[in-house]
């Protein structure tokens, strides 16, 4: 079985055919998904969707959404984590983190939300799903201040030294469509060399399409879709298998075991 550890199944890009997307994923062998929320307004819908489709979810405020957050957004998160603390499908606090790639974002506001959500994850005993984009050092600084019980560093790309620090703190590293591009040299290097216990797979659907779905701006303007979806995970995984010299079966077994270890509630769902 494959686990897509990061899929925004609630995204509007799936509104027209969400049920069919799930059917295709299951047919491809993707038996479990993690749907991370990005803002408090989505918490109820994300939870309902996870229950409806038999998958799992995480609750958090994404760094790209903190500028539009309600004054009580963090309080809403705390309340939701308390309200659904016994929900076996709630597997993490996420998607949280820092984004230093998109211009014009308020770094101090991002950091405030990130640190507060680390504290909530620690308080509620949940792992975290981290957004990492040119922000590995800032994320690690926060983790040193507020230790949590591990989790997943999503869409991972960092230096070897930074990678070692995340792994030493109990984090798995999410690899997806970006890994399929031959020019993604550092990502492919990491996928090849990190400890096998640190590898998990993801699509970030509908985003980060693999190379076979990539469209130029002109192609997108002409109406060609580059939408990613969970059913692409096994083909993405073949890239990891090729880089590691593994069979698809070994790749599925390793990455599934890792996902269930770093997100403990996921294990009961995946094998239940």
Automatic annotation (TrEMBL):
Pfam families: TatD_DNase. SUPFAM superfamilies: Metallo-dependent hydrolases. It comes from the Bacteria. One of its GO terms (molecular function) is hydrolase activity. Keywords: Hydrolase. InterPro entries: DNase_TatD-rel_CS (IPR018228), Metal_Hydrolase (IPR032466), TatD-like (IPR001130). CDD domains: TatD_DNAse. Belongs to the metallo-dependent hydrolases superfamily. TatD-type hydrolase family. This is TatD family hydrolase. It comes from Ideonella paludis. The lineage of its organism: Bacteria, Pseudomonadati, Pseudomonadota, Betaproteobacteria, Burkholderiales.
């Amino acid at each position: 079985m494959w686990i897509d550890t990061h899929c925004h199944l609630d995204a509007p890009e799936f509104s027209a055919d969400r049920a069919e997307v799930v059917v295709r994923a299951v047919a491809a062998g993707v038996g479990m998904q993690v749907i991370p929320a990005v803002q408090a307004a989505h918490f109820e819908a994300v939870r309902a969707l996870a229950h409806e489709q038999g998958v799992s979810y995480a609750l958090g405020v994404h760094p790209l959404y903190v500028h539009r957050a309600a004054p009580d957004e963090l309080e809403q998160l705390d309340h939701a984590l308390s309200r659904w603390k016994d929900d076996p499908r709630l597997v993490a606090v996420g998607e949280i983190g820092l984004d230093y790639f998109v211009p014009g974002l308020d770094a101090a506001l991002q950091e405030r939300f990130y640190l507060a959500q680390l504290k909530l994850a620690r308080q509620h005993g949940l792992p975290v799903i981290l957004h990492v984009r040119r922000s590995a050092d800032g994320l690690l600084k926060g983790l040193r201040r507020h230790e949590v019980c591990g989790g997943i560093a999503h869409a991972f790309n960092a230096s070897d030294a930074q990678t070692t620090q995340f792994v030493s703190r109990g984090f798995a590293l999410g690899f997806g469509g970006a890994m399929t591009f031959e020019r993604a040299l550092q990502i492919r290097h990491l996928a090849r060399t990190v400890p096998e216990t640190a590898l998990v797979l993801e699509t970030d659907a509908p985003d980060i399409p693999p190379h076979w779905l990539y469209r130029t701006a002109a192609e997108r303007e002409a109406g060609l879709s580059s939408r990613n979806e969970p059913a692409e995970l096994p083909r993405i995984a073949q890239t990891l298998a090729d880089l590691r010299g593994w069979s698809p079966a070994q790749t599925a077994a390793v990455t599934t075991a890792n996902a269930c270890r770093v997100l403990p509630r996921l294990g009961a769902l995946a094998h239940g």
